[in-house]
Structure formats: structure tokens, C-alpha cells
Write a structure and sequence with these properties.
Blueprint: H1 14-17, E1 32-41, E2 44-53, E3 60-66, H2 74-85, E4 89-93, H3 104-116, H4 118-134, E5 138-147, H5 149-159, E6 166-170
Length: about 190
């Protein structure tokens, strides 16, 4: 996986750019490791993927990544690895349960059940959040990012009062039977 280095050029760098001074840039090699992480929400067995850059020592902020409607697919795993490369510990959580992704009828049934039961949707997301928070490499600073269905899920978690420092909904539904109230933190 490439690591991008963005440099903002300033006028005081002109001697370097004119080859009058040597410029050495060392970019550490990234070692992104992803491992399956089994957990439960009540009677539902879930398997997420936990990602981190092993070349970055110490405790890191966490991101709970919630997949789109297809389930924990290559897109979700690729995004989780990408965020890990930026220095986060990332749990790409499983909102459907083992054996659901790939079975269209089961996926639609699961999405519908979660969408229609806001408490279940929030609880399912918080099960993943608990796994991420319990990881010894994760700091107490945790945010959630969700794509499409996952965007709905992270907004629902925020409205339910999940212990998150921020949420990002990427083209997620804003519809809810429980909108936040003016002046509320949810």
C-alpha cells in the first residue's frame, strides 16, 4: 500500500528545489495488519476486522468503520486499512452477522430489520465500538465513519448517545424517527 507524502512548498525551500542543498526524506515502511475480530451482540455472532499500522508504536485514536449495504466487503476493508495507514486503530465492524453478506435476501432482511429498529441498530454498532475501545492499542479518542447504510448507523449511534468524539456519514440516510432536539448533544 503506498504511503503518500504531501509537501507544501514555501519560498524558503527554493535552495533545496534549485538543487543547491540536499533533500532527504525518509518515509517509514507501513505494516498494516488486519485480523478477524469475533464478537457478539446478544445471540448474534459477528466478525469484524481490526486494522493497525504495526510500524506506529503506542496507543492510537480509534475509528469504528461501519460498512455499506453489501456488508463487510472489500471496500470497507480497504478503507479500514487506509485509515490505519493514517495512524488510527480501525475496527471494520460487522452489522449483519456471520453468513449474511453475499446472500441478497438475507442482506435485505437484515438491513430492513436494523433500519426499522433504531435501538437494535445503535446497539449493534455499540457492540463493535466496545470491541474497539477494549483493544489495548486504542486511546479514549474514538470516532465512527459509515458508508451509506453505515452512515445511517453512525448517525443513529450518535443520536442514541454513543461515546464517540465524532461521526462521519458518507452518503448515509438522514431520515430518522428520533431527530436530535435543539440544544441536545445527541
Amino acid at each position: 500500500m503506498p504511503r503518500w507524502l504531501f509537501v507544501r512548498l514555501h519560498s524558503h525551500l527554493s535552495p533545496v528545489l534549485d538543487n543547491r542543498l540536499p533533500l532527504a526524506v525518509t518515509v517509514e515502511k507501513m505494516t498494516i495488519l488486519g485480523r478477524p475480530q469475533a464478537y457478539r451482540d446478544g445471540d448474534t455472532s459477528l466478525t469484524g476486522m481490526l486494522y493497525r499500522d504495526e510500524a506506529m508504536p503506542g496507543v492510537r485514536p480509534g475509528i469504528l468503520l461501519v460498512h455499506g449495504g453489501a456488508g463487510l466487503d472489500d471496500h470497507a476493508r480497504d478503507q479500514a486499512a487506509r485509515y490505519a495507514g493514517l495512524g488510527y486503530v480501525v475496527l471494520a465492524c460487522d452489522m449483519f452477522g456471520d453468513g449474511v453478506a453475499g446472500d441478497r435476501a438475507r442482506v435485505i432482511g437484515c438491513i430492513t430489520a436494523l433500519r426499522d429498529d433504531q435501538a437494535l441498530l445503535a446497539r449493534r454498532g455499540e457492540a463493535g465500538l466496545a470491541v474497539l475501545a477494549a483493544d489495548p492499542g486504542t486511546s479514549d479518542r474514538v470516532a465512527a465513519v459509515g458508508f451509506c447504510f453505515g452512515g445511517l448507523a453512525v448517525l443513529t449511534m450518535a443520536r442514541a448517545g454513543a461515546d464517540l468524539d465524532g461521526v462521519v456519514s458518507i452518503h448515509g440516510s438522514l431520515a430518522t424517527p428520533a431527530p436530535g432536539m435543539t440544544g441536545s448533544k445527541s
